[in-house]
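Hi V.,

You were right to ask for the full record rather than a summary. Here it is.
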Amino acid sequence: MDWIYLDNNATTQPAPQVIAAMQEVNEQLWANPSSVHRFGQMVRHRVELARSSVAKLVHARDRELIFTSGGTESNNLALRGVLSYTSANNHQPVLITTPVEHSAIREPAAFIGEHGVRVVQLGVDINGCVDLLSLEAVLDANLAAGATVLVSIQWANNETGVIQPLNDVAAIIEAHRRRMLEIDRNEGTRTRLLLHSDATQAVGKLPVDVKAVPVDLMTFAAHKFHGPKGIGALYVRSGVKLQPTNLGGPQERDRRGGTENTPGI
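Predicted structure:
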């Protein structure tokens, strides 16, 4: 029987080059990349070459890329890592998101909503696109001097294929940032307004450039574009403060503890 596979939004078949590279690492570069001996540093060199390659894929700097276990962990790290920081004036942190996100956003959002974070759902139109006027109104209502506000909107939807207008979203956020900067200067406060995008269904399928679309954090995973499962990344723009959620070591510049998944990377 011949099979036709039509579920690439769920996962893709690993490319032959990927399988060959993973086999090479498992057979020849199996040491711990955190070890200071020569063998460990050979593996560290390969990890950093991979980081550079993945960073180029999304036009990021090498040091702005955190390797994780996949899109779900990256989303959790983005939401919980940003909103764990309390603001200078002890404002309640705010997460602004949409009802059409993947469960890897919806479920962490529900969890942090029960633990001190105000969660606000934006409206979407009949096609599932975010309502930009609703975003303006929600920011006006929830953005106070000294507050921490994270906007999380997916790049592309895994079920409908809708691509969100992230350029427009980023422009709205930048306009509000400029306005809050003036208020902060007058009041001696510091407002944090950040944009995160779950780009798991976009990276590797669409042109994604974090310089052209200035997100502050962005999630993606290798198995969506012919890489292995169990490895993903979180882009974190330089200067964005992030509380680690996976504790247990200094890996990934102290932002994600645990021995790196070298074959996956």
